[in-house]
Design brief:
With 264 residues, this protein is α/β, with parallel strands linked by helices. It is built from 7 helices and 13 strands. The strands form 3 sheets. A 9-stranded mixed β-sheet has the order 4-1-5-6-13-12-11-8-9, sandwiched between helices. It has a two-stranded antiparallel ribbon with strand order 2-3.
Length: 264
């Protein structure tokens, strides 16, 4: 495969303040995991804010990768109650990623969503979020241990039950239970239109969803499969491999369509 034939994956950035000035950022671990485990080219998408040209961006992409972040989706995006004081938000990312997700689903551009990403996927399709799941009756502590070092934070914390006959089950070769890390304070409440639950934790938190659209790859996971990407992280490599395969298929179909158009 030559470089001119590699699938291009769009990664919506976060908008942050850097030395008092706005900047666009994607954590390096997300770019590195694509480099290490796929044949795809990462391409950062600036956090424009509310956009009306999502289709123009997606015409040039073969996949959409939605990353985790320290910010949360603004509650007004899903008719939720106002956030507590001090909650981090990124309206510029929301305004960019939510239209991109909807347009990607509509045009069957493959989507892989991680942590904040699964929450964006759910909200983009009309779902809602629990803002503080650790306070709900019967729910465990899913937030990261901020006193721990990076490797400890991203170590596996709890099992998930994988639903049978779903996309995640197919990716894992029929596995019924997987171990995952946990670094989130919010999670899916009402499931978005067209989404199917793929996995749940022992305390009933939705850990993975997929889009139930024909011939479309759209998968969201609540954990962080991007780190660490060691050889022993079989689940992580399987997820990114499946995403890479879907992006390659989309690229080939897009190239075939463009060739037919030029030939005509």
């Amino acid at each position: 495969m030559t470089h001119s034939q590699l699938p291009i994956i769009g990664i919506p950035a976060c908008r942050i303040e850097l030395n008092g000035k706005p900047a666009h950022r994607v954590s390096d671990k997300y770019i590195e995991c694509l480099r290490m485990s796929t044949d795809c080219v990462p391409l950062l998408v600036p956090a424009f804010g509310d956009i009306d040209f999502a289709s123009e961006i997606l015409e040039r992409l073969d996949g959409l990768f939605l990353t985790g972040s320290g910010s949360n989706v603004e509650p007004h995006r899903y008719d939720g109650l106002p956030s507590r004081e001090g909650t981090a938000h990124d309206p510029y990312r929301d305004g960019t990623s939510l239209p991109l997700i909807k347009a990607a689903i509509d045009t069957k551009v493959p989507v892989f969503a991680v942590c904040r990403g699964i929450q964006e996927l759910n909200v983009a399709l009309g779902g809602s979020l629990h803002q503080n799941i650790h306070e709900l009756p019967g729910k465990s502590e899913h937030r990261m241990n901020r006193a721990a070092n990076t490797d400890e934070r991203f170590s596996v914390r709890h099992p998930i039950t994988v639903e049978r006959n779903g996309l995640l089950s197919e990716i894992t070769g029929g596995s019924e239970v997987e171990m995952v890390n946990s670094l989130h304070g919010q999670a899916i409440d009402r499931v978005g239109d067209g989404l199917k639950v793929e996995a749940i934790s022992e305390d009933g938190v939705i850990e993975a969803v997929s889009a139930s659209y024909p011939n479309a790859f759209a998968l969201g996971v609540q954990w962080h499969p991007e780190y660490p990407m060691t050889e022993s992280c079989i689940l992580s490599h399987s997820l990114f491999s499946a995403f890479s395969t879907a992006a390659t298929k989309h690229m080939n179909a897009r190239n075939s369509s463009e060739n037919k158009t030029h030939a005509a």
